[in-house]
Amino acid sequence: MRSEEILSGQESRLRALPGVLGILQRVLICLIPIVGILFILNLQTYLNMAIFPQQYLGLMFALTMTGTFLSIPGSKSAAPGRLPWYDGLLALAGVPAGLYLAVRYSEIAVSLGEISMERAILGVVAILLVLEGLRRLVGWVLVIVVTLIILYSQFANFFPGPLQGMPVPWERMSAYLYADPGAMLRMLEIAAGIALGFTIFGQALVVFGGGKQLTDMAVVSLGRFRGAPAKAAILSSSLMGTMSGSAVANVLITGSVTIPMMIRSGYRAALAGAVEAIASSGGQIMPPVMGITAFLIADNLGIPYADVALAALVPALLFYLVVFVQVDLEAGKDGMRGLAPSEIPKAGLVLRQAWVVLPCIATLIYFLFVARMDPGTAGLFSGAISVPFLMLAPGGRGRLLKRLVEVIETSGRMFLEFGAVLAAAGFIVGVASNTGLGFNLAYTLTEVGQGNILLLLGLAAVTCIILGMGMPSLPAYALLAALVAPAMVSLGIEPLAAHLFIFYFSVVSNWTPPVALACFAASAISRANPNRIGLIAVRLGILAYIIPFLFVFSPALLLQHSTMLEIAVSLITAALGTFILGVGLVGFLRRRISSATRLMFGIAGIALLIPLKADAGWVIYVNIVGLMIGVSLFVYEWRKGATSPQVVQLSVE
Questions:
Q1: Contact 222, 251 (CB under 8 A)
Q2: Is a pLDDT exceeding 60 seen at residue 320?
Q3: Number of domains, the chain
Q4: Cβ distance 250 to 240 under 8 Å?
């Protein structure tokens, strides 16, 4: 399987055209990252050329729309190697819609407030193209949501109560969504800058063999311990997930190695798939590099990315701790041991080959946290610097030009996966800001919550999971940050906590049934039922559903607005609570644990997870009670397990 096919999600995801059309298709796809690189490097400033950023974005829009309709079939039954006439027309329609912005934006910029018929018409064309591209990428649900929000701008006066607003003339609205820097073009700027820069870095790492090196390092580090394949999968997949930013792509890349390895060692097929789905998705919440979405959070809040990464550190560590505890106890429950020596690569050989990945990651961290470079530029430069290092390993040598073209092409194909979705998110942002929908929705949610923050958070979490189903976490967060975050902030929630809350629930939709994309990808490799994989993944990743509520109510877990004592105590109790909760979820310590005892372990673990808060002195008593229950149960079960006969069950699906 070619790497670009893997990274697109499925082999049949993108249409491969034959002959001259195929050459044109590949050229257009390659032009997307090339134009994006020129945009990131801000080349016109070095050439003393007066080019608006929106002119680059207009060209990116033309290439994206044309590439989308050339490459993504309109239905599953469409012939994979043939271009229908209507797709050809749609591809051609994207050219004037984008080139008008690329050529004429210097004139548009000085007359944005004027109603122009040509802009209104091209705006309608752009909106229809984006909606059709959205349907092909993520299905009808998001198309309906975006369409209803656009229609709100025309019929706002018919809505009841606080949702009522003033309608905007269609000519003005379509032109605004199409050409204003604060709507579609704003989200395309994020796609062409931050998202594309990190996509190129991730593809350079994969194409030149960095993904295999990470997997080998994880196996060498953890191969001797019980549950080694699952632990190695968590480590390697989380590292790849944080680079690629795509849970589905990461499952297909690393899961093709780790899932069969877990099954061979005794893990059930569904459990193996769930471990990979969780590890691949969780990489996006793990600093220092959190995929792409965290950079969008920093951009939305106007704060350095380093602040976002620091705040996300403790919740991410707790998330992975509970996953590690569970896979270790699952291995103990089924009597599994470490990998056979023949399955563990030679440490010396791996170190001689895999060390090349470390400078790649270190370079990216330096550019982001020390040099404080723009994220898109940091990703691009890190990708360029990584190539010479990766070529020092035997697997990365040879075929330099071919591999570089492959990096460009796979990056362009991945851009097609989120370009139209982010453009649609720009429509929502534009309608929300131009009609007052954002304020009205925030007010409505506040009224529904009736000042009850917990109720509002529950509504927000459910909304995030539902809207996040069937799409990557980046566009899911982009949509929800515009719709839900203002309501949360209006109730006094810290802006960073509100955005991280939305981010977490956008990520968990990757493994939450019934539409769990990462689980469906894992199912294709493990041959287990995707819903069964999803249910196990929910249990493994349970902390991702709990901890966002905790850091909203107490900023100690985000290392903010708390004393050092509060932070230290909160971290210690949270780590203990995470371990105790893991024991309760698996139902095993040194022996199998009864259901009643598991429930008590779970209650004790959650009680310890609640962080300290200056104005809530009762929390310390809850922590103390949880600690007493948890330690008592642990000591009792540990002693009983030492004297109980062990029943070894190897269960392989």
A1: no
A2: yes
A3: 2
A4: yes
392, two tokens: 């020092």
In this structure, are residues 286 and 296 in contact, taking their beta carbons and an 8 Å threshold? no
User: Do the beta carbons of residue 52 and residue 103 sit within 8 Å?
Assistant: no
Distance CA 274, CA 266 (A): 14
Helix (H), strand (E) at residue 332:
helix 305-333
Encode pLDDT of 603-653 as tens digits: 999 999 888 775 666 788 888 999 999 999 999 988 887 665 544 443 333
Whether residue 179 lies inside any domain: the answer is yes
Residue with tokens 């953890």: 222
pLDDT digits (tens, 9 = 90+) for 204-263: 888 888 777 777 787 787 777 787 878 887 887 777 666 655 677 678 767 877 888 788
* Residue with tokens 């990056």, as numbered in its chain: 411
Establish if 307 belongs to a structural domain: no
Give the phi and the psi of residue 592 in degrees, each rounded to 5.
-70, 140
Domain assignment of residue 625, given as a range: 562-642
Would you call the peptide bond into 514 cis, given omega within 30 degrees of 0 as the criterion?
yes
76: helix, strand or coil: coil
Whether residue 271 lies inside any domain: the answer is no
121 CB neighbour count, 10 Å cutoff? 16
- pLDDT band at residue 557 under the 50/70/90 scheme: confident
CA pair distance 620, 608, nearest whole angstrom: 9
Give yes or no for a cis peptide into 345 (omega within 30° of 0).
no
CA distance 91 to 179: 20
From 162, 187, 212, give the residue that closes a domain. 187
Give me the chain's average pLDDT, please: 84
Q: Which of 132, 166, 187 is the last residue of a domain?
A: 187
What is the average pLDDT across 181-208?
A: 86
Whether residue 489 is contained in a domain is answered as no
CB 630 within 8 A of CB 605: yes
